[in-house]
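Ticket #4471: structure output looks truncated?

Reporter: J.K.
Steps to reproduce: submitted the chain below (314 residues) through the standard prediction queue, then opened the result file.
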Amino acid sequence: MNIPPKPNYDDPYFWVKLPDSSQSAAQKADVFFVHGTVLHSKTEIYFDPRNEEHRLLPFRPRMIHAGAYEKTCRVYQPQYRQLTMEAHLNDWETIKNYYRVPVEDITAAYRHFMTHWNSGRPLILAGNSQGSILILELLKHLKACGELPQNLVAAYIIGFTVTQADLDGLGMRLCQSPTDLNCIISYNTLAEGAEKGFTILPGALCVNPLTWTQSEEKADKSKHLGFMETKEDGTQIIHKNATNTWINKKIGAVIADIFNTETAPPREYFPKGDLHSYNYPLFFKNIEANAEERVNAYLAAKKKLNFKGFCLPK
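Returned output as attached by the reporter:
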């Protein structure tokens, strides 16, 4: 098995996105964002951050994933030795062994970010798909080391499963409102009529991204702020009021009726009706608005209580 050399996070070359001189005063927080799986290969296990063809792959989806936080946050998005899509088709023990490499990278990137750049600013941890696996593993590592961030606004672990056992181990909870703090947001999206998803594991919990609550009540499409559609030429179009959503707690997923199992776009390796690719773009404007609302709530609480951050349970 060929494992590429470690990235050097001192070098901007190993970051997909870092803040630049165009940052605005509205960006009151930082987001450490880990992107999802971008490489397909039946011969390679790992993405190589030094391979120029590989390096380009995270840039196209960046604006519909990490871009959802950019209105409110400076974005720090590392390149890393992620697993290819096909590597995930192995048995679970093999996959866990493979994940040691990207976990090492994301831990190193996070430590560099916190040491050199964050300086106690409000912090959002966020991921998509494989990136969410790694954010969850990062939180577990930080908990074990007694280093959970005291300036955490929330962790958006989107496109992977978070269970009650995960929350109990971290001493954290699933977010219960749009302004709840020091909590985890997680969901996987299915089309109406679908019953399973590639990243939905037993015990999956979820938050409805139209209401940011765990209620099973249907959220009306009037609460849907915008689906970010990206055309082949890169043109982006916002579609507002595009879907109703509700939580199916038995499955552990958010159901969106913009598609049903017959109309949902198919994706190789994913069950029929699995809207995994839509977890971010379908709710882009809701995520954008909620990141701003939650950061403002954090800053208001910090000002009111005159504290440095939320001290998480040891």
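Triage note (M.O.): checked the attachment and the full token line is present. The two ends are 38 Å apart (CA to CA).
Status: closed, working as intended.
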